[in-house]
Amino acid sequence: MGSFYLVRSVLVLWLGFLFVGTLCESQDDSDSITAVYIVTLKQAPASHFNGELRREAHGFKLGAAERLNRFNKPRNVSMSHENPDSYIARLHDSLLRRVLRGEKYLKLYSYRYLINGFAVFVTTRQAEKLSRSGEVANVVLDFSVRTATTHTPQFLGLPKGAWVQMGGYETAGKGIVIGFVDTGIDPTHPSFSDDVSEQSYPVPAHYSGICEVTRDFPSGSCNRKLIGARHFAASAITRGIFNSSQDYASPFDGDGHGTHTASVAAGNHGIPLVVAGHHFGNASGMAPHSHIAVYKALYKSFGGFAADVVAAIDQAAQDGVDIISLSITPNRRPPGIATFFNPIDMALLSAVKAGIFVVQAAGNTGPSPKSMSSFSPWIFTVGAASHDRVYANSIILGNNVTISGVGLAPGTDDQNTMYMLISAIHALNNDTTFANDMYVGECQDSSSFNKDIVQGNLLICSYSIRFVLGLSTIKQALQTAKNLSAVGVVFYMDPFVIGFQLNPTPMKIPGIIIPSPEDSKILLQYYNSSLERDGVTKKIVRFGAVACISGGIKANYSILAPKIMYYSARGPDPEDSFLDDADIMKPNLVAPGNSIWAAWSSLGTDSVEFQGENFAMMSGTSMAAPHVAGLAALIKQRFPSFSPSAIGSALSTTASQYAKNGGPIMAQRAYANPDLNQSPATPFDMGSGFVNATGALDPGLIFDSNYDDYMSFLCGINGSAPVVLNFTGQNCWNYNNSLSGTDLNLPSIAIAKLNKSRTIQRSVMNIGINETYSVGWSAPYGVTLKVAPSRFSIATGEQQVLTVFVNATTNSTAASFGRIGLFGDQGHVVNIPLSVIVKVSYNISNS
Q1: What is the C-alpha to C-alpha distance for residues 380 and 359, in angstroms, rounded to an integer?
Q2: Any residues with CB less than 8 A from the CB of 776 and at least 6 apart, and which?
Q3: Which one of 124, 563, 789, 807 is most buried, by most CB atoms within 10 A?
């Protein structure tokens, strides 16, 4: 999500959280406090029956025409989404009746595919009664969650690389269904039309979802592109915070975020992108021929809740999606349980077992260490990087000083013509004073100003914290300037807005926002020093400052991209009182996430500056994740039998560690002045590196892991056996060979506590041609490293075990980094990042 979006969303969600907390705490008797709980049963869910995964049979044998007819079938907009004929749902009802005899409660959902459980609104005392039932494995208090292009296909090399390998953009992603758990979708957007391609566009036979029909999402909203849409809001409604005047009780996107992310991954190719009357190119998703299924579980006024998100994930898996894209993260780690053991991650573990590749945004809580909000090894975590297209304009002052700024705006007509600068506070009419409008300098009301003073000049306005909070808007200031017949607008940054990063903002008239308070001071000093005042009255008698604005509509291209954005969350592991470190390297990689053009909902109100537009430019890990979801669709299309971990391996091992200029990828280290505070990126900043779309379609070797491996990892965490049993219904004694995070067959190695030495094994499979590989490595500081064999030949379909010997030489308090490279004689290169912290219990130098 964008910087502007991030600040507002956090404020809204925090206020919503306070409201719910206050409501509960107002009760006198703690036993009578009601809340939403997620209850997991010991019996396995439908997807685990007979020890194998199965899809629900209904819908799989329907013809394309029959499935399309189902989309437009009206349905009862019930919040429970419960199938009354479901055997598991009936078991849930029976359990509740038996345990809560005659007591009032409200069941919100029955989860039956990925986890066997339900969400229920009960008192604290009732929750305790449920937890004591022999059939119940776990009871968890519901928790809140939040939402965490035209050029990026070119930057990623798709037109001449990956798309060519897939037969062109016309077929890129064909037959693959991407499920989006987000804020919904605007079905009227041309990015989701099914009539833009001459190619056949059948609904995939393995997808069985439906299209909810409501007043806001009428019959005909779905098509062969947008093949499924539902919404989930029972937890929010039960809490009494669902605002029907702001939040659509339908799959329709009243926010904009969900429409944006869906189009990044799977939007149609070649859609003209016009904003504020300016043409910025043609938009395309990463996999423009893939299909979209929407599972709305987040809302603009309050965010979302885990109970609704789990219901959405459960339904998406049951419907048969191939990929789940999550641009959402928890507001905070759920209290009282280990990080990995929360309902969302446990549901996603079952989704991975079902063969679904899961992509999640890393979170926008960087750049501090261990700020990761997506941490489980079965989830593919994506951080945010810049790409090479940048928009910038500038103002040239009459004293020959040039100040850079942002603004998707035209310049003044003639660069040789200077226009008078007039500050809004010096153009007030006789009826306006600071006493009756202290924010008049923000130019929100044209009636406050004297048109005769402003007309034909450049109007200077203040950009304060009120713009960040949405109380004042650029759009209204532009309207003021237009009403006053100003040539253009110059916004200077209020010094109280410290370190705030601005995206380019669309403007129909010449305009610029100076994002730096220091540069804003330079502007104001020049302006004030050029004023002539009456010696007695001190009134202004002449405005002497002049300037012109250069245009910011045409993009420039930087050779310093990509770089890791300051807000992108950092690894390796989350802060967790249950375990010190899990030896899991996160993020997995980074992808374009900054200044991303993509579709916008026609009624989306999240970003005021893009209200009413068909496209918006947003920033955040929310934008990076769907890039990878779309690229994963291309891999799934090419390799239909790939497991989720194999898809992740293909993406990781081919990632690049270099910027466009050939130097190392840099990482921003500070929120304020991030480009002045950066250094080479480490694996904790970027994982394996920056995604390589074309390379991922031909990885040569892959690392593979499965559900049993992840269960062995969970069972290997000290004291976790009861928790594993509670969440999965499976005993750890079924997994005799417990695995540490270091021992999982991942395309990375992380050792948080190296004591003396460690031997690690990795297994690779050749999915390419017969090839001979040479092994090279660079050791992290404080260790020696050796890999055996150092050279091997491997035929197609064969496996090779690599043994990595790590020996400590010097104690260290911080992680150091290295890399293993496998170099094939047919051109394949496989990269494996390493991180090590040496913590030896004796003095190495005396050993």
Answers
A1: 5
A2: 820, 821, 823
A3: 563
Residue 363 and residue 575: Cα distance in Å, rounded? 14
DSSP β-bridge partners for residue 40: 117, 138
**What domains are defined for the chain?**
3-141 (no CATH), 144-389+558-708 (3.40.50.200), 392-542 (3.50.30.30), 748-846 (2.60.40.2310)
What does 565-601 look like in DSSP terms, one character per residue? -TTS---S----SS-S-------SEEEE-SSEEEE--
For the record, the structure tokens of 83 come out as: 């199938």
Cα(345)–Cα(838) distance, rounded to whole angstroms?
Answer: 30
Q: How confident is the model over 788-831, as pLDDT tens digits?
A: 999 999 999 999 999 999 999 988 888 999 999 999 999 999 99
The helix or strand, by DSSP H or E, that contains position 330, with its residue range, turns out to be strand 328-330
Q: Tell me: the pLDDT tens digits for 768-784?
A: 999 999 999 999 999 99
Q: What is the number of residues in the chain?
A: 847
Beta bridge partners of 547: 397, 419
DSSP 813: S
Helix (H, G, I), strand (E, B) or coil at 668: strand
**Angle between the 721-728 and 707-715 helix axes, to the nearest 10 degrees?**
140
Non-local (6+) Cβ contacts of 782 within 8 A are 808, 809, 810, 811, 812, 816, 836, 838
Determine contact, residues 102/85, Cβ cutoff 8 Å: no
Q: How many CB atoms lie within 10 A of CB 230?
A: 25
Cα→Cα distances 217→70, 364, 632, 767, Å: 15, 31, 29, 44
CA-CA distance, 31 to 128, in Å (whole number)? 10
Q: Which of 81, 92, 231, 257 is catalytic?
A: 257
Q: Is 80 a catalytic residue?
A: no
How many CB atoms are located within 10 Å of the residue 91 CB?
Answer: 17
Phi and psi torsions of 21, nearest 5° = -60, -40
Cβ neighbors of 568 (< 8 A, separation 6 or more) are 362, 364, 366, 367, 383, 384, 385, 587, 590, 593, 621, 624, 685
Beta bridge partners of 540: 533
Beta bridge partners, 766, equal 701
Distance CA 507, CA 408 (A): 6
The answer to whether 85 is a known catalytic residue is no
What are the structure tokens assigned to 663, written together?
């130097």
pLDDT of 503 higher than 80: no
What span, in angstroms and rounded, lies between the C-alpha atoms of 222 and 208?
14
Q: How confident is the model at residue 69 (pLDDT cuts 50, 70, 90)?
A: very low
Sheet containing strand 799-808, strands side by side? 701-703, 757-766, 799-808, 783-788
CA trace torsion 341, 344, 347, 351 (10° rounding): -120
Which residue, among 178, 114, 111, has the nearest Cα to 142 in the 3D structure? 111
Whether 292 has a pLDDT exceeding 90, the answer reads yes
Place of tokens 């991954």: 265
Look up tokens 């903002």; give the residue.
505
Q: What is the mean pLDDT of the chain?
A: 85
pTM: 0.87
Active site residue 622: yes
Cα-Cα-Cα-Cα dihedral sign, residues 70, 71, 76, 78: positive
Q: Which position among 182, 388, 704, 709 bears the catalytic label?
A: 182
Chain-centroid distance, C-alpha 322: 18
pLDDT bin (cut points 50, 70, 90) of residue 494 is confident
Q: Checking DSSP bridges between strand 278-283 and strand 271-275, what pairing results, if any?
A: antiparallel
**CA dist., res. 450 & res. 620, Å (int):** 41
Token representation of residue 577: 């009182």
User: Which of 221, 622, 649, 705 is an active site residue?
Assistant: 622
Kindly compute the dihedral angle of the four CA atoms of residues 253, 255, 257, 258, in this order, to the nearest 10 degrees. Answer: -10
Query: b vs e for 104-114, b when ≥16 Cβ sit within 10 Å of the residue's Cβ?
Result: ebebbbbbbbb
Q: Which two tokens stand for residue 139?
A: 């009871």
